[in-house]
Amino acid sequence: MSILTPDQMDDIIFGMGMTHREAAGVLRVPARDLFSWVQGKSEIPDEKATELLKLEEMIEDYAEDILATVDDIVEEKGKPESVPVIRYLGNKVFKEWNPGFYKIFRYHKLYSTVITRARIELNREDITLVPVTFDPERYQDFLGEKEDSEANRLAWAEAMVAETKTAATKAIEAKSGEAEAAKKEVPAEEAPEEDTGAEEIGPEETNEE
C-alpha cells in the first residue's frame, strides 16, 4: 500500500494550486500515470508520494521563512500595514532570476503557493503581504550600476508598490475632479412661467355679440 491514498494525493495537489497535468510535470511523470493514481486505478509509487510530500514540506518551510522575515520587520520598525514580496510568473523568468528556488520548487506556481499561504497567516494579524510580479526590465532599470541582491530586489518591490499607490491616488483624484466638473456643467432647471392669475381669453371671446 502506498504512503498516500488517491484522495490525499489529490488534496495535496489541489492545495498546491496545481492542476493534475502541472503536478505530473513537476513529478516528471506522464499525465496519464498521475490520472490513474488519483483515480485509484493504480498504486501510487512510494518515491513519487515521498517527492510530493517533500514539496509540500518545502512550501510550508518557506512560508514560515516569509513570516519570520515579517516578524523581524515588526520587531525593528513596528507593525507595517503591508509588506511587499516578489513573485515570479512563468518558469523562464523563475529559472533565470531565482535559480535557487527554481531548483527546489521546479514550477513557479509552487512558489506562488508559498506566498499565498504566508498572506493568509499575515491577514490574521492585519498585515497585507503584497505580491509584486518580477519584471526583469524594470528591475534592471531600477538597479542601474548596483549589484543584484535580495536587498535591492526588496527595495525595487517597495518602489513598485509605492508607484502603484501613487497612480491609484491620482486616478481617484482625477475621477473626483471629473465628477465635480460634471456637477458644475449640469444646466439649471428652467424656472416655471409666472402665474399672473389672469384667465386667458381666446380670440372668439373678444367679439361682442
Salient structural properties:
209 residues, mainly alpha, two-stranded parallel sheet, 9 helices, 63% helix
Mean pLDDT reading: 87
Give the SSE string. HHHHEHHHEHH
N-to-C span: 119 Å
Discrete helix count:
9
Structural class call reads mainly alpha
Instruction: Note the overall shape.
Output: elongated
Query: Beta fraction of the residues?
Result: 5-15%
Largest sheet features: 2 strands, parallel
Structure description:
It is a single chain. Helix 2 (20-27) crosses helix 3, helix 4 crosses helix 7 (108-123) and helix 5 (91-97) crosses helix 6 (99-105). This protein has 9 helices and 2 strands. The chain has helices at residues 6-15, 20-27, 31-38, 46-77, 91-97, 99-105, 108-123, 136-143, 150-185; strands at 82-87, 128-133. The protein is mostly helical and 209 residues long. A two-stranded parallel sheet has the order 1-2.
Task: Give the helices and strands, then pairings.
Elements lengths: L5 H10 L4 H8 L3 H8 L7 H32 L4 E6 L3 H7 L1 H7 L2 H16 L4 E6 L2 H8 L6 H36 L24
Parallel strand pairs: 1-2
